[in-house]
Queue: 3 jobs
Job 1
Amino acid sequence: MNSSFSWNSFGASVIGPGHILTATPNQDSWLAFHQGWGDGIVVADGIGSKSHADFGSSAACQAVKMTVRNFADSFSREQILNFPSAVLSCWTELVVPLDPRDCSSTCLYAFRSGDDLLRIGMIGDGCAAAVKIDGRVSVLSENKDDGFTNITIALNSNLNEKSWKTLDVRESECRAIVLCTDGVSDDLENVEGFILGFVEAHRNLARLSASRRTREMLENWPAPKHSDDKTIVCLMRVDEVDE
């Protein structure tokens, strides 16, 4: 009996109470892709003070997908090192003719391209977490302990490549990857516990059922005074057994 696995995804995004009151669109965006050249998920949060934040976050998600596709045929070490800057370049082109300064957005991604590595990266706030088969959790998040909690690093024309945080995880050792915007992560006192519970609660559900349950969770978020948009997306390993 041989075992193999594939990757599925699900997620949801809900507009925050503050944006409902001001008739502002949801400034979070997300997407998932499952193609012959790779599987992945992306989450982005447009900076609220920018006039085209919602467009900027949508462009960020598309930029990651397009960059993975462009690099998929030959993921060399040099390309991997240049991946964040290639995403920025693609995003800058996608927001034309708008000024990139009016479209600033965070960006969190996770993808696989067939070399037994899941590549995770983020710019800005939010949280990216990988759940290992053995139950360990590796987390990428913005450090907000330096006193500059109102300053968020984001995609913009002057972005420093060193501002990106990245993490590689072996496919064979990973159960799931979860990405969420700060509308979720800022309310978590125990990030690892939340991520583990979220994955366990959804790992045996079909994609539509998992997305529906995720949306219900966000709509009934236990911090009603938190006015921000909320988005959470998961790339889940699906084990298959060949008899």
Note: The chain has a mean pLDDT of 89.
Job 2
Amino acid sequence: SIGRITPDKGQDKAIEIAKKSGSRLILAGNVQNKTKDRAFFKKLEKTIDLVVDTSKHFSDSDYYEKFMKPILNSDKQIIYIGEVNNAQKKLWYQHAQATLFPIQWGEPFGLVLIESMACGTPVLAFRKGSVPEIIIHGKTGFVVNSLEEALEVLPQVESISSRTCRKHVEDQFDSEKMAQAYLSVYRQIIS
């Protein structure tokens, strides 16, 4: 689960899904200096098995070997790794079985969804905001209405093709295609 650590992003729900399913969860994201977000993280910390010191900087060439591999080989279930850069995000997506996106508000466009699928990783997301417009339920991930439904479909993420995820992003969210679609909408509005 990647995103700013805040109640709106639902990391507490991601932790609950992981705990109830017995799955490992890697949480990545920054905690902004906002009272609400700091308090939320303080509450989350009680359920996190390992908080990794992200002040150690590894070059892109040794990031997997020195940082990711020990985490992936550990016996810890809920792991917080802090904020990651784009190259690091890509590696985490590529090594994930799925990306959890238990969003708690009407997110207008979830970039995390696109990034994950572009890396071939299916998404398990709550039906809020743009989620149903971005994920093809059963093909590029699963769109669910509740925690119980998330737990029910979680074993099925293995059936999602990484190629289908990647192709969906290429077909629907290519920057040129999206710009043309916006132009088309603007032309319709003007006329």
Note: The beta strands are 25-27, 50-51, 78-80, 99-101, 123-126, 141-144.
Job 3
Amino acid sequence: MKKKFIAFIPARKGSQGIKDKNLIKIGTKKLVEYTFKEVNKIKGISCFVATDDQRVKNIAKKYNINCEYQRPKKVSNSQTPMIETLYDFNKKFKKKIDYDYVIILQPTSPLRSKKDIQKAIQEVNKKKLLSLTSISKSIEHPYESIFFKNKRYKPFFSGLKNFSCRQDFDKRSFFINGAIGIIHKTLIEKKKTEHKIRHGFVLMKKINSLDLNDVEELEIIKKILKR
């Protein structure tokens, strides 16, 4: 039996790094619109926005994105785990709509494409996964990461073997980019984000994986979208 997928776009009001990040204009569109536009290209998938911001709802309606879910304050702060919001959504909508999987699409990944989302869905169907996370190749060598303590630096990793050269790093180091997440409804009901065994990954290009968190990343994304 063909599995049914719905898309879920969390877009709460406010942000710490950039004020009103979801509504910041990049090129001809506001940030959240890039996700609305791409998900609309995929046939047969209903899309829901989870927001406490009326401005985001007004934009979502223009793209025929479902705004029925009223995201309560208890799951709308910066410290709320995503699974808590999904659990609340599922509790309210599981009897209203028929679905097996929820695709989580963060608006902060405006370079993620329709093909990326479709590839993730295909991976879930092909391998009969219950959860999936998108990844990309690491940009920096993880063993070159440092932190400062009492004005002195310390490496995050040291003394580890068989993974020190660039060639090993290029083949084996990946980053969870947060662009796409897929979770089966049964896991959401247990407040779990992934299955221990039937969990998979989908590889995305680095350029599609950029996540907007600060002003510097905003400038990079603006330049890419102007091409």
Note: Residues 114-127 form the longest helix (14 residues).
